[in-house]
């Protein structure tokens, strides 16, 4: 399972793993893949530094990367300056706040204790927050910087290259992939409709070869709907130089979902139990379908607000739902591959399964091609 890109990065397997959890990212690198830590939830630079220190101690000198969310389309204050969190809060209509409270009340969701902060307060998609994360990350020997929601700004690409860090960006269409290539990035992550998190409308089977063709000779990683070695083989057969997996790590023993009810829901969910909804961030993101996403997607409701308003509007509500494990409302970003996530396993066990399945697929194709 070696490609030019995996050799360039010095990893055994061309398997890249996106995860918000440092313990999972480190385990992916130790298992022979390339762990990528999602930084979006780190609003305090010191927290990111603490977790990168931890990663340094636990990757056994193996390479890893960081993922930030710098939207190419920035929300700006009327004067053109970057929006602050207070500006965003002030833009949220009272009717939407009322809808949040009514929906929570309908399910009897308790409030947070006096003075208790909302744990799920993601502002990492605000450029000044993401830049703070980068200031921390460039002090560590990261080998890859990935960006969701567009190409990173030119000065960020330049800074990464000066430090010998490869730059990747997620793309949901061949057009986006070409834009990234024109911006000077090194790797395109072609993420199909099936994927967990923010997705476009083109399925991986169609997108992967289109992206490969659009940006050749730049390497493309296939993302979306990959959870078995056979699927890895299919992606590599379509021309990808590796795969980028996000959902499958959520039910690993190293993941820290803070909710056994959520883990149970993921293990029980089928591939049809996700929905692409704007409920979490204001942009379409695939996640478990719940009564919370149904409420936001109901045409009788007020509808969602654009990014970054929706994320701040629902931040406290999401924390309350998670804290009190209110099952009908409890969800997480996850892709259609959730249908095969049926047992809690270690990251190493996932890799063992991926490599065995890959070998089976190669043997099968060799037999079909008359080479076995
Ligand atoms: C819980 C979760 C959170 C995600 N958050 C981000 C993110 O912050 N930045 C990003 O680039 N991609 C994010 N993604 C998308 C992943 O990077 C990856 O492209 C996707 O999960 C691949 O498809 P799969 O879910 O079918 O494995 C997230 C995915 C999941 C499941």
Automatic annotation (TrEMBL):
Coiled coil: none annotated. Keywords: Flavoprotein, FMN, Monooxygenase, Oxidoreductase. This is Nitronate monooxygenase. Pfam families: NMO. CDD domains: NPD_like. GO terms for molecular function: monooxygenase activity.
């Amino acid at each position: 399972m070696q490609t030019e890109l995996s050799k360039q990065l010095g990893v055994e397997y061309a398997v890249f793993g996106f995860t918000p959890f440092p313990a999972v990212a480190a385990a992916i690198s130790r298992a022979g893949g390339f762990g990528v830590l999602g930084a979006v939830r780190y609003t305090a630079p010191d927290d990111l530094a603490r977790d990168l220190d931890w990663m340094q101690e636990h990757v056994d000198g193996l390479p890893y990367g960081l993922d930030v969310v710098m939207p190419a389309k920035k929300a700006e204050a009327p004067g053109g300056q970057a929006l602050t969190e207070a500006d965003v809060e002030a833009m949220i209509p009272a009717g939407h706040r009322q809808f949040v409270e009514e929906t929570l009340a309908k399910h009897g969701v308790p409030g947070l204790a006096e003075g208790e902060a909302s744990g799920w307060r993601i502002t990492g998609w605000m450029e000044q927050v993401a830049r703070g994360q980068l200031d921390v990350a460039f002090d560590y020997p990261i080998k890859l910087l990935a960006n969701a929601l567009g190409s990173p700004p030119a000065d960020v690409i330049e800074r990464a290259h000066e430090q010998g860090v490869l730059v990747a960006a997620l793309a949901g269409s061949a057009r986006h992939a070409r834009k990234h290539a024109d911006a000077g990035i090194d790797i395109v992550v072609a993420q199909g409709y099936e994927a967990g998190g923010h997705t476009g409308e083109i399925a991986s089977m169609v997108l992967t070869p289109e992206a490969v063709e659009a940006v050749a000779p730049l390497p493309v990683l296939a993302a979306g709907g990959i959870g078995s070695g056979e699927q890895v083989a299919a992606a590599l057969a379509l021309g990808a130089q590796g795969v980028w997996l996000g959902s499958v790590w959520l039910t690993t023993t190293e993941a820290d979902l803070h909710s056994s009810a959520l883990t149970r829901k993921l293990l029980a969910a089928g591939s049809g139990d996700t929905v692409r909804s704007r409920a979490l961030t204001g942009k379409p993101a695939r996640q478990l379908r719940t009564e919370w996403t149904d409420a936001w997607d109901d045409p009788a409701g007020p509808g969602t607000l654009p990014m970054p308003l929706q994320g701040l509007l629902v931040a406290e509500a999401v924390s309350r739902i998670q804290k009190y494990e209110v099952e009908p409302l409890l969800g997480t970003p996850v892709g259609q591959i959730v249908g095969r996530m049926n047992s809690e396993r270690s990251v190493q066990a996932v890799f063992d399964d991926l490599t065995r399945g890959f070998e089976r697929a190669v043997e099968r194709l060799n037999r079909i091609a008359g080479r076995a």
